[in-house]
Amino acid sequence: MPTDQPRPAATTDEHGYLLSVEEAADRYAAAGHPRTIRAIQKYCRRGDLESQKVETTYGERYLITPASIDRHIAMIMERSQASGLEQPRPAATIRSSDGPEKTALEAPENVREQPRPAAAEFQDRYIVHLEKENEFLREQNTVLLERVKETNILTGRLQEMLTPLLGPSDRPARTGERDHASSEGAGSSQLG
């Protein structure tokens, strides 16, 4: 059965992998349904768009068929009309100025708000607390110094008691020890 018209080529522009992700984003924006580059890459990974990954000098990129983009946009439009939305979803940066907006940090209206204490009050309480803590540490330091003095006295007396038992030491006597020993020797010579 001969036909008068030749058969179209297997790959036409609509079925060829021609468009980059950026060009696809432009098509979505022109149709009134803007999408981010990452969203389009996700569509390619999931198979929502007919695409091929190609290796470039800077890594892998998706090339997408224009027909699959048109089908996906048509599907988005059908869904928005079926759900009663006549206009596309606004971009995240656009805010309506219909009235005051509540943020997640604001308290609901039925919760009674407590005023925060002024910074000066907080600082005063903090300073009083720090001064009390400093006073306590000063007292502890005084007690510790007294204990160190007592320990030094006890250690010195223990050394005096042990010296006759251990015999003469080979190390030279310190200046204070020599003065003490010479004054003891002078005192004993005067007595005799």
Provide structural commentary.
- With 192 residues, the protein is mainly alpha-helical.
- Among the domains are: 21-82, no CATH class; 119-186, no CATH class.
- 53% of the residues lie in helices and 6% in strands.
- The chain has a two-stranded antiparallel ribbon.
- A hairpin with a 2-residue loop joins strand 1 (51-56) and strand 2.
- The radius of gyration is 46 Å and the shape is elongated.
Care to give the gist of this entry?
The chain is mainly alpha-helical. Helices cover about 55% and strands about 5% of the residues.
What's the count of strands?
2
Q: What radius of gyration results from the CA coordinates?
A: 46 Å
Mean pLDDT: 76
Low-confidence region ranges = none
Strand order of the largest sheet: 1-2
Q: What's the helical proportion of residues?
A: 40-55%
Task: Tell me the series of helices and strands, N- to C-terminal.
Answer: HHEEHHH
Terminus-to-terminus distance: 153 Å
Helix count? 5
Shape: elongated
Strand proportion, as a percent range, falls in 5-15%
User: Biggest sheet, in brief?
Assistant: 2 strands, antiparallel
Structural class: mainly alpha
